[in-house]
Write a structure and sequence with these properties.
The complex is a heterodimer of chains A (about 325) and B (about 260). Chain A has about 325 residues and is an all-alpha fold. Chain A has a domain of about 220 residues. Chain A is built from twelve helices and four strands. In chain A, the strands form two sheets. A two-stranded antiparallel sheet of chain A has the order 1-4. In chain A, strands 2-3 form a two-stranded antiparallel ribbon. Chain A is globular and about 55 Å long. The termini of chain A are close together. Chain B folds into two domains: about 170 residues, Rossmann fold (3-Layer(aba) Sandwich); about 80 residues, no CATH class. In chain B, strands 6-7-8-3-9-10 form a six-stranded mixed sheet, with helices on both faces. Chain B has a four-stranded antiparallel sheet with strand order 2-1-4-5, with helices on one face. Chain B starts with 5 loop residues before the first strand and ends with a helix. Classes of the chains: A mainly alpha (about 325), B alpha/beta (about 260). At the A-B interface, α6, α7, α8 and α9 of A face α2, α3 and α4 of B.
Amino acid sequence: MKSLERFGYPVFFVVIAILPFLLDPRWQAVAITFLIFAVVALSQDIILGKAGMFNMGQALFFGMGAYLTAILNAKFGWPMLATIPVAILIPALMGILLAGPIVHLRGDYLLVVTIGFNIVFVQVVQNNLGGVTGGPNGIFGLDAMNLFGIKLASQVSVYYFAFAVLLLTLGIMANLEKSKAGRALHYLREDPLAAESIGINTRVYKIFAFGLGAGIAGLAGTVYATQYAAVSPEAFEFIQSVLFFSIVLVGGSSIPGVLLGVFVMFVLPEIFREFATWRFFIFGFAMILAMVLRPRGIWPATFGKIPKFLIKESNHGA
Amino acid sequence: MAPNNLVLTNVTKRFGGLTAVDELNMTVEEGQIYGVIGPNGAGKTTVFNCITGIYQSEEGSVKWRGEEIRGLTPYKIVDRGIVRTFQTIRLFGQMSVAENIMSGRHIKSQQSWWHGIVPTPGSRRDELENWQKVQEQLEFFNLGEFAATPTNSLPYGIQRRVEMARAMAVDPTLLILDEPAAGLNDKETLALLETIFQIRDKGVTVLLIEHDMDLVMQVTDYLTVINFGKKIAEGTPDEIQKDPAVIEAYLGSEDDDDE
């Protein structure tokens, strides 16, 4: 799988880079959403895959980023670009605040609490809190993103913006793997007590995972708002969180796994749209099969990212 | 600077109506290999859990270098130089031996949380330095060939060594070993004995629980014997072997097991 990764990444990036020129507008839209969902799923992977916390509310942070961009642009007249830092920082802060009191909860309890958060968020925006969220219709008519003189008016330009955000996210993920903070997340997922007993403040790193995951999801929200020039509550329902959760489970907690997961869980249903609701019947079974046959995901997390000088000749596998 | 002594005074830990540790006093001095022995269920592991912050004792005090550490969280106690291993090995099973040992470097690493997002030349250097420390431990514990192997696929004896290597990676002042010889064969036990002496020679104080009486008598400088959470004797191995209370409570019970 290692060699597959080395070969696969360049191919993947080249395909993604030229993809808009091969697709008609409808499929370009699907491709943009694929990139956005990939970013959200990667952010979910930090919380669920790496740190092992059953977060079932990732759509909350995704939606918060999208709504912040929409509100600041439509109601307060901020340029789209200026909303980006806010759409990262506020969800990250929210992630930290919400996670603070709940990270000590065991998996299933945490899951229920995060579902609650998600539902509260959707209710709040549906009921037009403070008169800025637009109620059930949401907010539309957002400006086009103006990236230092380049106006993202066409779908193709939005595509490349989304691609850049995905690359940034992949960069963060790659760096996380090679840092103390990223390893701490793996340790606390594998055995919290052992992690604590070897000197890791598990609570701080759990909250860190939530904050980082929420910030990245918030950024993805901005891209989403840019794509549709609109936001509406149903895009951030609890069921959307379920999608991100299952992407990580089915795909596996690795970058290829998550990307495959997004493809299988989002793009394939789009491709088989003509089969109408029957496709979900098939999908249900495909998910069951995937989990039974590959309980750790299609492309499970690979560890062993250790410096070469540590690996001796008589290597016993890995 | 106070000496690197661990002083337990009247430590009492209760679980509901059961008093697992009852007014225990003991002093571990710098450079010692100190043993805690006692029959099964005597409360030895509970004592260790009280020292390492997994439990907080209801009464008494645990002083390390003159500082009260009772009530501190486990990671804060590690930060003060006290590291432990577990009776039931607790490794990060899916991760490689090198990564497991690297977890011991966590507290020594200079990286901040945000280096996980944005690396700097400093964090890269810090990363490399810590991996080099891991390499030292791999060599010391003779684990080099398993560096990239996930620990859950290794034999029990090697897992024990990995756990000790992980603890030693912290550069501890006091190393606490909970039944380090459990599940080891004779050859491995001998190697362990050698390792414990080497660790002590590095200037690390060792506190251990052990069932293997041969090992305890050979390796320790000083012993505390507990039964039903109470200390029934303390002294050098020679004194303990002659102590009638110990023979009755501990060694005597071994004869019953033999049949």
